[in-house]
Backbone:
């Protein structure tokens, strides 16, 4: 599915970006102390050096609240017309996490809902929020990607425990026109439901019910077939990015920064090679935060802006891939906005 607005068309424009990382840093060395792994393996196979994990008692909604408050501050606004929250790790299976976050943010009775698209969640949530704006249902929307993967990781599974981190990022979108900096110029979204088992929490939903019927306690934890996922990730993000670039008329060489989902530095380099974007243009912050799933894109974006890698006027391509399988891409010219 794709959406590409015309130049004077009403679109969603990015007005501010906020992020939050829980303070506790978990190093590769700390994990090597209790799992059969090593700093060397984690660094060379993934690029990750550390990740942040929330302390016991801190939930996704708490991280989402902090990032959301910062995004509102960055945009200089107090009120939005809707809150869309992407997460794989909601506070509860029911209800959604977004209404409670919206209430804590002082947003009253605005519509608030969760989007479940795993690591592609932020792009999906941004597309949903943009659609509310384009349809005239909202003038301003707060989009949040927030995760506490530390709560769903199997502590005995070295293949997932070393990869994922907790964190949150949020943006404020406002109605504007496609010609403005910050305008979301298009979306390319897709899914392939032939591979639901490659990334999953098998039990706890209606398929394997939670009342003790799941045969294996590990079925309640997150699991991933990393090797197969790797290939799908590169190909799907590559195809989706290329399709979007063609539709919005950006030659590949005009892309200043590629903000890809931060799963593995080898994936980001393979993606850059496949697209024909220089590897140096691929933003990398997974070395410090790991794979934060739905929070990955805004955290990488904020890191790049704060580090001077993304400047106003730069052409930024964002692309993400995750469980489902699901993927999505969007693009904008970076506006002169605050990052908090
Ligand atoms: O966020 C959604 C999208 N997610 C992704 O895109 C993740 C994509 N996948 C990956 O990033 C990589 O596949 C991983 C980082 C997850 C794994 O890297 P890999 O190079 O594909 O390793 P592998 O799964 O093929 O495993 C190679 C070896 C295996 O040992 P044998 O069978 O060769 O003896 C694993 O058991 O490495 C072993 N291994 C480890 N060794 C030390 C797997 N995890 C670890 C570990 N420490 N943490």
Residues:
């Amino acid at each position: 599915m794709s959406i590409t607005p015309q130049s004077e068309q009403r679109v969603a424009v990015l007005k501010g970006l906020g992020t939050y990382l829980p303070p506790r840093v978990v190093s590769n060395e700390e994990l090597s102390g209790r799992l059969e792994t090593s700093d060397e393996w984690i660094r060379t196979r993934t690029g990750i050096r550390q990740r942040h994990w929330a302390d016991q008692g801190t939930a996704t909604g708490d991280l989402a609240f902090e990032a959301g408050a910062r995004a509102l501050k960055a945009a200089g606004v107090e009120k939005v017309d809707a809150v869309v929250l992407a997460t794989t790790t909601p506070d509860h299976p029911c209800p959604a996490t977004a209404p409670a976050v919206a209430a804590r943010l002082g947003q009253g009775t605005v519509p608030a809902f969760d989007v479940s698209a795993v690591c592609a969640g932020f792009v999906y949530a941004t597309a949903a929020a943009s659609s509310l704006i384009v349809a005239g249902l909202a003038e301003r929307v707060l989009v949040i990607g927030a995760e506490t993967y530390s709560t769903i990781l199997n502590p005995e599974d070295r293949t997932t425990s070393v990869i994922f981190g907790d964190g949150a990022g949020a943006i404020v979108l406002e109605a504007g026109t496609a010609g403005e900096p910050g305008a979301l110029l298009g979306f390319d979204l897709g899914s392939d439901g032939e591979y639901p088992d490659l990334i999953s929490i098998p039990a706890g939903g209606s398929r394997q019910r939670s009342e003790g019927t799941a045969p294996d306690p590990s079925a309640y934890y997150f699991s991933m077939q990393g090797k197969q996922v790797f290939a799908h990730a590169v190909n799907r993000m590559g195809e989706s990015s290329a399709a979007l670039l063609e539709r919005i008329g950006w030659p590949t060489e005009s892309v200043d920064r590629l903000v890809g989902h931060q799963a593995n530095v080898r994936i980001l380099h393979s993606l850059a090679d496949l697209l024909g974007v220089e590897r140096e243009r691929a933003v990398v912050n997974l070395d410090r935060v790991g794979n934060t799933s739905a929070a990955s894109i805004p955290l990488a974006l904020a890191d790049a802006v704060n580090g001077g890698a993304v400047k106003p006027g730069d052409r930024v391509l964002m692309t993400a891939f995750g469980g489902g399988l699901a993927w999505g891409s969007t693009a904008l010219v970076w506006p002169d906005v605050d990052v908090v």
Remarks:
- The domain at 2-177 is CATH 3.40.47.10 (Peroxisomal Thiolase; Chain A, domain 1).
- Residues 37, 41-42, 45-46, 119, 158-159, 162-163, 226-227, 229-230, 233, 263-264, 267, 291, 321-322 surround oxa(dethia)-CoA (CB under 6 Å).
- The first strand starts at residue 2 and ends at 3.
